[in-house]
Amino acid sequence: MDIDQLRSFDRIVRDGSFTKAAARLNVTQATISMRIRTLEAHVGGALFTRGRKVELTERGTTFLSYARRILATLLESEDAMRSVDRGRIAFASLRSLIEPLATPAVVDFMRAHPRVELRFEEGRHRDIAEWLHDRSLDLAIIGWPNFDPLLEALEPIAILREKAVLAASPSLAEKIGPQPTLDRVFEVAPHFLSFFWWQVTPDAIQTLRHRARTSSQVLFSSGRALISRGDAIGHLLQASITEDLAEGRLVDLAPIDMPAIWRDSALVAGSADAISRPLVAELAERIVARAATLGVLHADRR
């Protein structure tokens, strides 16, 4: 029994697929299958039922908690070794907060500490949750509240709250008119866009999607381009379009009968002792300060 076998076993359970687990671990499916066969020989029987759906056997279910306990101990030891080297930090942020929040804080931090090795990544909530679960991050900005049962022990360093603005181009906003109702907005707007910012799409946005003549779910860059050209409307996070609103490139339609919509996220530590490291604490402080400057700091829990 070795660590690669245990990691492969845990990955298959989490993904429900040998193929997906192989892709996640960047190995071939044959390698995954060989690891599991070797592990099954060690534990004395099959861990999975093979078929159209991969499921744990009774032996596999019993073994799972022990395997995860071993992996957790290994990851804790890796955390401890990383904390010995004070010159390395791993940080990840939600893509939507890279430009307005994370990048300015990281740039200032690296200017102050040019010899520090920083790994700075972006992703959707589910990507960052995976990295946190694998204990590969010191700091992260994730969606909040946290609904991942594997990360239930996470406590926020700070909670961020961004207003979602129903944005349109100036030309489309002029056609719709000032202080519109939602009926008026959807009477004129050709297309309603929503984005992948939410762990769970808010009910208010789901309702608007049903009211629109046509609706699509798109990436931020594509959606912003469509909105800027007057081909669509959609909720953009205010912090990411502050300059566009101030300079008149985009308009907040602010329908009089639309409830306020917010997106919460949180700055969290990847492990209980990560924030005790001076460099990690300093980067967290810079991120919180930047959030306060942007007006998106909802609660400072430090």
TrEMBL record:
SUPFAM superfamilies: Periplasmic binding protein-like II, Winged helix' DNA-binding domain. Keywords: DNA-binding, Transcription, Transcription regulation. The keyword Oxidoreductase does not apply. Residues 1-57 form the HTH lysR-type domain. Belongs to the LysR transcriptional regulatory family. This is LysR family transcriptional regulator.
